[in-house]
Amino acid sequence: MRHVGRIVIRGGLVVTAADEVEADVLVEDEKVVALAAAGSDEAEGWTADRVVDASGKYVIPGGVDAHTHMEMPFGGTHASDTFETGTVAAAWGGTTTVVDFAVQARGRALREGLDGWLGRAAGACAVDYGFHVIVSDVTDASLGELDRLVDEGVTSFKLFMAYPGVFHSDDGRILRAMQRAAGNGGLVMVHAENGIAIDVLVEQALAAGRTEPRYHGEVRRALLESEATHRAIQLARVAGDAPLYVVHVSAREAVAELARARDEGLPVFGETCPHYLFLSADRLAEPGFEGAKYVCSTPLRPREHQAALWRALRTDDLQVVSTDHCPFCFAGQKELGRGDFSRIPNGIPGVEHRMDLLHQAVVEGRVSRRRWIELACAAPARMFGLYGRKGTIAPGSDADIVVYDPAAEQTISATTHHMNVDYSAYEGLRVTGRVETVLSRGRFVIDGRRFTGRAGHGVFLPRGTCQYVG
User: Fold this and answer.
1) Where are the beta strands (DSSP E) in 180-323?
2) What phi, psi does 48 have (nearest 5°)?
3) Contacts (Cβ under 8 Å, ≥6 apart) of 165
4) Rounded to whole angstroms, how far apart are CA atoms 279 and 247?
5) How far apart are CA 397 and CA 394, in angstroms?
6) 385 near 414, Cβ under 8 Å?
7) In the predicted model, is pLDDT for residue 411 greater than 70?
8) What is the 3-state secondary structure (H, E, C) of 269-303?
9) Is the pLDDT of residue 151 over 70?
10) What residues pair up with 251 in beta bridges, in sequence order?
């Protein structure tokens, strides 16, 4: 990995969530030291060990992907990206921080799960990382552990209304976790689908011979996402207006529930993912077994849902775009579900493409440049207690900086991506905009479209509590 003591990035348009300004950026060791107007006496007086020419380019904060699943066990297999391959791919896509999920095994301590995942990530990550904890077993003991984890900088916890028998928690357990979080400052994340009802529909579909991938989307009804979203919001209210973050929102009916809660002033937040914005349910019906490539939960929705998601991103009824990156190879993994859609491992690869896809939305006029950075960098950093260090370019922030070429054209393909998966969900999609150079804490990890990083550069990030709530 190339480390240069003092770096000046000259001539670019610095774009943050708050501002756009033609400025030079001074980096020393791991931090941003100063910004100054391009051509000013201050900027011209800087000395540096290396000058990066960003003329005609954007200079943006490194992306913060707050929802990834490296090495995630699911359905008898595990996600195909390791912490090394997944974070290298993230760097190629301009993401310099990931927040992954440590999984509590039922009947075991949260700490045991977290320690296991910390062990997997240590020495492997090319960019910085943090963890949420998946709470599979809500007990008096695990609730007590939540307090200690918040004190240690693991400040967010995920509970599932889906996957009975695996991760599912009933309403009483979710309520108890929300009550605990309301007291300790933690943020409860919820996978909002009515898994018990979905399992009935799965059983009925299979019994009727409806086994193809398309039925994965048909049984996971939009109404069962919106019902669960409504229920999660009401439980959070009962728990004393506990902050709530609903993950991977895909249905317009669920967006409406979030918007209504936010209109009432409740501390309720939501994320969506690029695949819901750029792909639709017709992919699940592709010929043969190709639809399995697009099986994820919540599922891809009919195209008409996309307008509601884009609108919510513009109005801040959805605050964050994360990838829910959970890759499974088509050969040997997705194929486990041939003849039974319920056995297809759930997940879509995407950690490498989030920044580019959202820039394409800028090109198409769906969001502004600053909103692009808000959704991909600043808001996830604020949501999960990292802003100031991550998510912006300002004196004192980590020197996580991307030089981004807004005019470069590329075609997304499995033949050129860096994720450890044998297909691309966006195969053949042409987009405008591409990462050119990436600094992670002042180190060049991508240098002029060459990977110069290394496994083990990334460090674990203890996080503060959600910066959107008092």
Assistant:
1) 187-191, 244-246, 268-272, 320-321
2) -150, 155
3) none
4) 18
5) 5
6) no
7) yes
8) EEEECHHHHHCCHHHHHCCCCHHHHHCCCCCCCCH
9) yes
10) none
The conformation of residue 285, written as its DSSP 8-state character, comes to: G
Whether pTM > 0.70 for this model: the answer is yes
Residue with tokens 């499995």: 414
- Look at residue 74 in the predicted model and tell me its pLDDT: 84
Identify the bridge partners of residue 321 per DSSP, sorted by sequence position.
272
Q: Is 52 helix (H, G, I), strand (E, B) or coil?
A: strand
* Cα dist from 331 to 15, 96, 293, whole Å: 41, 29, 10
For the record, the structure tokens of 97 come out as 């921080």
pLDDT tens track for 101-120: 999 999 999 999 999 999 99
Distance CA 229, CA 221 (A): 13
Point out which residues pair with 36 in neighbouring strands: 24
Element (H, E) at 31: strand 31-37
**DSSP tally for the chain: helices H, then strands E:** 14, 20
**CA 401 to CA 451: how far, in whole Å?**
15
Q: In whole numbers, what is the pLDDT of the chain averaged over residues? A: 97
pLDDT tens digits, one per residue of 232-282: 999 999 999 999 999 999 999 999 999 999 999 999 999 999 999 999 999
Q: What is the C-alpha separation between 360 and 367, in angstroms, rounded? A: 9
**Concatenated DSSP letters of 398-448:** B--EEEEEEEEEEE--TTT--SSSS--TTTT-EEEEEEEEEEETTEEEESS
Is residue 470 pLDDT above 80, yes or no? no
Distance CA 309, CA 4 (A): 42
- Of the candidates 402, 429, 432, the residue with the CA atom closest to the CA atom of residue 416: 429
Closest of 390, 431, 437 to residue 413, by C-alpha: 431
